[in-house]
Amino acid sequence: MEERYTLKKSNPALKVFIYILLVVWAFINLFPIYFMFTFSLKSNEEIFGKNVVGLPHEWRWSNYSSAMGTGNMGLYFFNSVLVTVFSIAISIMAAMMATYALTRIKWKWAEMTNAFFMLGLTIPLQASIVPVYVILSKLHWLNHYSTLIIPYSAFTLSMSILICTGFMVDIPYDLDEAARIDGCGLWGTFFRIIAPLLKPALSTIGIYAFLQCWNEFMFANVFISDSKHRTLPVGIKALSGAYTTDWGPIGAALVIATFPTLIIYIFLSRKIQDSFIAGAVKG
Question: Less CB within 10 Å around the terminal CB: N or C of the chain?
């Protein structure tokens, strides 16, 4: 029978106290979301004095049209989606292939190569911005979508390999041998046998890469100078300069940038938790 930790019925005061703490903690976490959403629908008069915390007296949905149209948030949103999707896809495929080569194929430099990949976990993003910029500049690779896709994929690769390794080492090697007996080659074994068994790891890698790419500001601000390829974080910065006297569209832009992350987590929260727990147990 499954064991569960429960509060003793003989101590209702403790139960009420814990529920109060949980309610307070939920309020602390949800209030910034509420404030940001109502902020995006107010005028400057309400934001700066008349109605700071309450619901808007006049729901100004036009702030969103201003952000999407005049502020180009629609274009920046598309750029962020494009860069994030391609970065996640490259990170997942590269991590799975690298992990397969490091853990399932016997070759001389496997351990050294794995240690080289793990060095990426020790390199802070800030320390690499100058050399990466110099390389991209010499290659005439600035102001393109790939300007962000390639560095984002590279900087998420080390953690992605680490996550994949925790799952792949627990897959029995007998499956590889059975696949080869049945006629599968190296690629067939990888795509037909190993890749389907790594679905929990892919969820974890996808969420990790999404958070790293969607919210990244420094690379996007330094490597992209034209408005055509800007992502949302840089676009919001530019918007704050253009709308110094009208803060409603800025709040709308913040909602556009923040809510996709919340929505994805709401729909995938169970899968995300299961994948992290599975990785912890396997590790």
Answer: N
